[in-house]
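Reopening this ticket.

The earlier resolution said the output was attached, but the attachment link was broken on my side. Pasting everything inline this time so it's all in one place.
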Amino acid sequence: MATSKVTNLSILDDAVRTAGIQDAAVTPAKTSGVPTLFLPTAKPIIINGDMAVAQRNSGTVAQSDGSNEGYATVDRMQTTFGNSAGGTITTSRDNEAPTGFGQSMKFDITGADASVGATHIVYSEHTIEAQVIRNSGWNYTSSSSYLTLSFQIRSSKTGTYCVFFQTNDGTAYMYTAEYTISSADTWEKKVITLPGNSNLTFNNDNGKGLIVAWVWAVGTDRDGTADAWTTGNAYGTSNQVNFLDSTSNIAYITGVQLEVGEYTSSDLPPFRHESYGDNLARCQRYFQKLTNGESGKGLCMVRYWSSTAAGGVFNLPTTMRANPSASYANGTGYWLISGGTGGTNDPFDTITNNDTSLQNAGWYSGSAATGTAGYAGLMMTNSTSAKAEFSAEL
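Inline output:
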C-alpha cells in the first residue's frame, strides 16, 4: 500500500459528496498546499488583487494633482491628489513581488512634497460595487460581523500608515485603520478587520459601494480617529507618515484580498489566484480597449452611408458595468476601411462616438471617409497611435 496512488479512476462516481464532509473539516490550514487557482471558491471581492492586468499602460505614468490623476496603469487602482495636494507619484506594474506572485503595483515618489497642507490627502483606491458588498454575506449593519482586508506591501520608508474605508449609499461613512511598516525594503503582510455598523447602507445596484484606499499623505484637517466609523473626515490618522517627503521613497503593493469574516494572519484564507484571462474579463467590466498599439488590426464591419460618411458598431468583448464613455485617438490616416469601394483601401482621420451600450459602441465618420454609398468594408487601425477605449469605472 505504500506505493498506491489515488487517481480519478479509483474513485467511484458520486463517492465523494458534500454530505460526507464534516463541518469545518476543510480549513485554510489544511488547504495551504493546494494551488489556490483550483480551490472551489467564489470569485474574489477584490478584482486584480495580484496587479497582473494593466490595460491602460504597462509602463510608467507620472501622476500628480490634475495630471494623469485617477486610473493610469494597473486596472482597478486609481490615485488621487485631493485639494491640490503636492508631489508626484510615478505608478507602474512591476515585477518586484513576494513569493507566490508575479507582479505588484509600484509607487515611486518622483516629485517630493515635504510639507503636507492641512486639507491635502493623497491615496490610491480600489472601489467595489454596492451590490457586491450587499450580496457578499457580510452582515454590514452588525458590529460583530466583519470584513478582513489583507495585502502585501514593501516600502523603503518605515512607520505608521493608514488604510481607509468609505461607503457611498445613504449617509456616507468612513473608517480608518493603522498598520506599521517595520522593516524597510521588505515584503510584509498586513491584515486589517472592518466591523459592521448599524448606520451603513449598500444599495443592491451597480453603483459605488465601498472604497478601500491606501493613504500616502494626509493633512491635519482630513485625519481622524482610528478604528471608528464616522460621518466626518477619517482619511488617515495624525500618525500617518508623509510618504511623499522624499524622492527616495518607493513602495509596492500586491496580494490584495477582502474576505467576509474576522481573520488573523494565522487563519486567513489563502489568496485566490485567477487565470489571467478570467482576471482580465473581470477588469473589462469597468474598462476595456480594442486597440493596443497595433496597426492593421481589424475591428468591425463598416458601411458607407454616402461618398464621405461611414459608420459601424464595435462589439465589446465583455459586458460592461454601465453604458461606457468612449475615447478615440484620431489623427492623419489613423483609421482604414479595407475593401469598401471595389476592393480599395480608404484611409481616414477621424471617428466619432455615435452611441454606446453595455455590449456595443457605435461610431461614425461624417466627412473624412471617401467611398461609395451602400458599399461595406472592414474597419481597421492604420496607425500604432489609433485608440479606441471604453470606460464604465465607478
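Reporter confirms the inline version is readable. The chain has a mean pLDDT of 91. The first helix runs from residue 130 to 134.
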